[in-house]
Amino acid sequence: MFVLGIDSSTQSTKAVVADAETGRIVAEGKAHHPAGTEVDPWAWWTAAQEAVAHAAAGAPGKIEAVSVAGQQHGMVALDGAGNPVRDALLWNDTRSAPQARALIDAHGAATLAERTGLVPVASFTLTKLAWLAQNEPHHADRVDRVLLPHDWLTWLFAGRPERACTDRGDASGTGYYAPATGRWLPDLLREAMGGRTPRLPDVLGPAESAGRASGFAPLEGALLGAGTGDNMAGALGIGAGPGDVVVSLGTSGTAFAVADHPCADPSGLVAGFCDATGRYLPLVCTLNAARVLSGTASMLGTDLAGLDRLALEAAPGAGGLSLLPYLEGERTPDLPDATGTLTGLRGTNMTPENLARAAVEGMLCGLADGVEALRAVGVEVRRVLLIGGASESAAVRAVAPSLFGVPVEIPEATEYVALGAAKQAAWAISGSTTPPDWELRSQPCPAANIYQGEAVRHTYRTAREQIHGF
Ligand SMILES: Nc1ncnc2c1ncn2[C@@H]1O[C@H](COP(=O)(O)OP(=O)(O)O)[C@@H](O)[C@H]1O
Ligand SMILES: O=C(CO)[C@@H](O)[C@H](O)COP(=O)(O)O
């Protein structure tokens, strides 16, 4: 039997067809998304259809079940006819930072962390809806229901039924859901939307079904899983266990672990999400990961392989250069208006090699701080599993072990978010109480000198303190 998993993330949609027994991937498809932090949700539907059609065409048999994983938090606000009232605001759109601050001022960070698992930052859907109500009331007035990117796609694959649905994982990234009780918090939504009360999707359990696919030939009649957020699907795809911290280097950088209890971090560094198995997913997210490397490569007039070569020719510490890579502003730490800074320049260290190395080290230092923040809320860190596009980088693989200070492993090269979605689909159709136990193989990165890593992180922290005051 074959199942299909979809990863509709920031830069592209990826689809994989897997054998439901073993998890072996037998076919794949991919389609790109438009650039920018506000995107027409129909573009994701077009990309999903293209990627799925390609994957399904390569499948050796019928697709029996499908699930959609998607970039978290994006605001998909629909009118009564089921059409978006405006382009979706993405997780990395920082325009709602003032609304996030106002929510904290009104309720207090600790109270919001206890109620929602989150201290608001511009990424979360609640703040985007508050921005919409305050800045585009004519659009807010037309909102009949609010969905997340994965909910939107699941709803379209289901043929636009009356009820839409989501799952605990993605619901927990909205800011108007209580991870500890599994309930929506309509009072927060109403307040953010200036008294308006849009409809919310039903929250399905991890192996529940969202119905059957209808109206899109390659999937016609397939069972639809609940779907989830891309990070939750990544954890499910990997089968992350105790002691595992997954670090994903996509458009965002994320560090997360599966936990048995909800997390409420009043500092706001760790978001207390739910996972896709009925447990929890404490997570730290930065806005700047893979694009730090591609941006630096362009600046140096080279490609990603060239950046790797340069970075590996420089010594650890980049000759004293440190890059605070806040190219899109930053979420962790909460600096929505920040820009990037290169510190430590001297006549003797201004080389392409050192700049390339500083980019790799700077991107990873933010995530090493994220792993520290997970430790501080009680997460056990025995190894780091690196996934996401930039985990392909040879320089990242060489540098990461010294900065994380624990063994770093690379799961067999594949799309773990789409695979996690496929695993959820296989689970939904199996009727089992536990997800399929697909074998995970990973390769260790060569061990590295952790004292050098500590020195690099010290220089990075000092630069941040000098520029941002903490
Ligand atoms: N070898 C590589 N070195 C560095 N970055 C890479 C490499 N291969 C892919 N990437 C980057 O990975 C990113 C895409 O990763 P992905 O995890 O698919 O992102 P997302 O899920 O956010 O759409 C792109 O920015 C791409 O430049
Ligand atoms: O906002 C978050 C997590 O809270 C991001 O991780 C998004 O879910 C987007 O993910 P990628 O496109 O970078 O995979």
TrEMBL record:
Annotated active site residues, numbered on this chain, are 230
According to its UniProt entry, one GO biological process term is: D-xylose metabolic process
A molecular-function term among this protein's GO annotations: D-xylulokinase activity
Q: Which Gene3D superfamilies match?
A: 3.30.420.40
SUPFAM superfamilies noted in UniProt: Actin-like ATPase domain
| Highest taxon of the lineage | Bacteria
* CDD domains linked: ASKHA_NBD_FGGY_BaXK-like (cd07809)
**Annotated substrate binding sites:** 72-73
List the coiled-coil residues.
none
User: Which reaction is recorded as catalysed by this protein?
Assistant: D-xylulose + ATP = D-xylulose 5-phosphate + ADP + H(+)
Residues covered by the Carbohydrate kinase FGGY N-terminal domain: 3-237
Q: Where is this site: Important for activity?
A: 7
Per the database record, which ranges form the Carbohydrate kinase FGGY C-terminal domain? 246-428
Q: Pfam families under this entry?
A: FGGY_C (PF02782), FGGY_N (PF00370)
- Enzyme class, first EC level, given as a word: transferase
UniProt keywords, alphabetically: ATP-binding, Carbohydrate metabolism, Kinase, Nucleotide-binding, Transferase, Xylose metabolism
- What EC number(s) would the UniProt record show? 2.7.1.17
Report the function annotation for this chain: Catalyzes the phosphorylation of D-xylulose to D-xylulose 5-phosphate.
What family does the Swiss-Prot or TrEMBL record give for this protein? Belongs to the FGGY kinase family.
Q: Which HAMAP family match?
A: XylB
Q: What is this protein called?
A: Xylulose kinase
Biological source species: Saccharopolyspora gloriosae
